[in-house]
Amino acid sequence: MSKEYETVIGLEVHVELATKTKIFCACSTAFGSAPNTHTCPVCTGMPGSLPVLNKKVVEYAMAVGLATNCQINQYSKFDRKNYFYPDNPQNYQISQLYLPICHDGGVEIETESGGKKTIGIHEIHMEEDAGKLVHDDWEGVSLVDYNRSGVPLIEIVSEPDMRSAEEVIAYLEKLRMTIQYLGASDCKMQEGSMRADVNLSVREKGAKEFGTRTEMKNIGSFKAIAHAIEAETARQIDLIESGEKVVQETRRWNDDQGYSYAMRSKEDAQDYRYFPEPDLVPIVVSDEWLQQIRDNQPELHDEKLARYIAEFGLPEYDAQILTSEKKLADLFEATSAICNKPKKVSNWLMGETMRLLKDREMDAEDLRFSPEHLAKIIELTEAGTINNSVAKEVFEKVFDEDIDPECYVEEHGLKSDNDEDALRATIEQIVKDNPQSVEDYHNGKEKAIGFLVGQTMKATKGKANPGIVNKILKELL
């Protein structure tokens, strides 16, 4: 009988904070600039330069800690983590080992297979990011860009509480949503502002001891993380089954080729020769400062979800989708406040907005149209000024270019034809030209009227008011 195995997973999630400047200097944190343009003596590790802590970094770290039910250390310190790598200009990284800012928290996740479960958070600490190595295979050289060096990070270290890729993705989605709601980071994995290291081991089901773990570094998408977990689980089980030992090591996951390879043997804390950072004083968080952060916490996902169902009468499914992304929730609330038609706003966001996001391969975070313009489309449709098919056409322009829908409708002559007398004459002609459909309708085929409506819309170039068309057709038939 073959043995059954259990996967044990813990994550280290690195999140780039949304501050305008770096953690210890005044250089910009903007993404995508020319290499080495956001640098100074501090973030390039020049001798004699001194770090000065960015207060906003501490506030974001505390906000994330409170939102993930952590204890806040009101006395915390920075430490030096020593290692030698070309993208690490000082040959050490300023981090927190002994007294991190947050500890002992947890978030509740929900999975289809396992229901509700709490994933423990061991600690959250602040640190600076390293630079970025760019490998030029053509020239056979590596180049270094120090723009990212000194960008503020928090590292969220979970307990080894996850047992499947599904639980890992649910945990990461919950973290990302929480951090986005706080405004602490945009968590764009494609830009590296949220990255995960996966610590994974397998053991026989029912065993108390953990197996030997490996760490897969800096995986940059949910899909890649799920693939990496499945492949590494299978690799470790194969080793155990064939009587070999799993080696504790750091591995790199190659998502294109679907396998991981060893990078280096796994370091422990003592390998980094940590010691207290001599250039920075301890951080003392007063009761008043902590209370101020507590008071400024925004409404988070779970409270918002409950409120949307209670206050706006939305179905739970709709409310789940709208609150899953902060940008969607903000658009929903702002548009509803203008036009006071929450269900209509929800329909537009759930329908056309989601469709266009998928077509354009965009994230909700990339939406640029204003709530005023969506509200205007809803009002124009409700007033019968434009019909539904025109509204969809106009919305596509609003989605892409955020044009003023009212001006666009006026300029392109898209107003509905609400002139009953003119429409009656057109419809009478269509009824006359389609005796078969009229006969089918009289014989009980309700669908025949749909064909006649379609012919009317064709004749009026889509401008006829469908409500009036249906009314006149029923009278004539």
TrEMBL record:
<dbReference type="InterPro" id="IPR042114">
    <property type="entry name" value="GatB_C_1"/>
</dbReference>
<keyword id="KW-0067">ATP-binding</keyword>
<dbReference type="InterPro" id="IPR023168">
    <property type="entry name" value="GatB_Yqey_C_2"/>
</dbReference>
<dbReference type="GO" id="GO:0006412">
    <property type="term" value="P:translation"/>
</dbReference>
<keyword id="KW-0436">Ligase</keyword>
<keyword id="KW-0547">Nucleotide-binding</keyword>
<dbReference type="GO" id="GO:0005524">
    <property type="term" value="F:ATP binding"/>
</dbReference>
<dbReference type="Pfam" id="PF02637">
    <property type="entry name" value="GatB_Yqey"/>
</dbReference>
<protein>
    <recommendedName>
        <fullName>Aspartyl/glutamyl-tRNA(Asn/Gln) amidotransferase subunit B</fullName>
        <ecNumber>6.3.5.-</ecNumber>
    </recommendedName>
</protein>
<dbReference type="InterPro" id="IPR017958">
    <property type="entry name" value="Gln-tRNA_amidoTrfase_suB_CS"/>
</dbReference>
<dbReference type="InterPro" id="IPR017959">
    <property type="entry name" value="Asn/Gln-tRNA_amidoTrfase_suB/E"/>
</dbReference>
<comment type="function">
    <text>Allows the formation of correctly charged Asn-tRNA(Asn) or Gln-tRNA(Gln) through the transamidation of misacylated Asp-tRNA(Asn) or Glu-tRNA(Gln) in organisms which lack either or both of asparaginyl-tRNA or glutaminyl-tRNA synthetases. The reaction takes place in the presence of glutamine and ATP through an activated phospho-Asp-tRNA(Asn) or phospho-Glu-tRNA(Gln).</text>
</comment>
<comment type="subunit">
    <text>Heterotrimer of A, B and C subunits.</text>
</comment>
<feature type="domain" description="Asn/Gln amidotransferase">
    <location>
        <begin position="330"/>
        <end position="477"/>
    </location>
</feature>
<dbReference type="Pfam" id="PF02934">
    <property type="entry name" value="GatB_N"/>
</dbReference>
<dbReference type="InterPro" id="IPR003789">
    <property type="entry name" value="Asn/Gln_tRNA_amidoTrase-B-like"/>
</dbReference>
<dbReference type="InterPro" id="IPR006075">
    <property type="entry name" value="Asn/Gln-tRNA_Trfase_suB/E_cat"/>
</dbReference>
<dbReference type="GO" id="GO:0050567">
    <property type="term" value="F:glutaminyl-tRNA synthase (glutamine-hydrolyzing) activity"/>
</dbReference>
<dbReference type="GO" id="GO:0016740">
    <property type="term" value="F:transferase activity"/>
</dbReference>
<dbReference type="InterPro" id="IPR004413">
    <property type="entry name" value="GatB"/>
</dbReference>
<keyword id="KW-0648">Protein biosynthesis</keyword>
<comment type="similarity">
    <text>Belongs to the GatB/GatE family. GatB subfamily.</text>
</comment>
<dbReference type="InterPro" id="IPR014746">
    <property type="entry name" value="Gln_synth/guanido_kin_cat_dom"/>
</dbReference>
<keyword id="KW-0808">Transferase</keyword>
<dbReference type="GO" id="GO:0070681">
    <property type="term" value="P:glutaminyl-tRNAGln biosynthesis via transamidation"/>
</dbReference>
<dbReference type="InterPro" id="IPR018027">
    <property type="entry name" value="Asn/Gln_amidotransferase"/>
</dbReference>
<dbReference type="GO" id="GO:0050566">
    <property type="term" value="F:asparaginyl-tRNA synthase (glutamine-hydrolyzing) activity"/>
</dbReference>
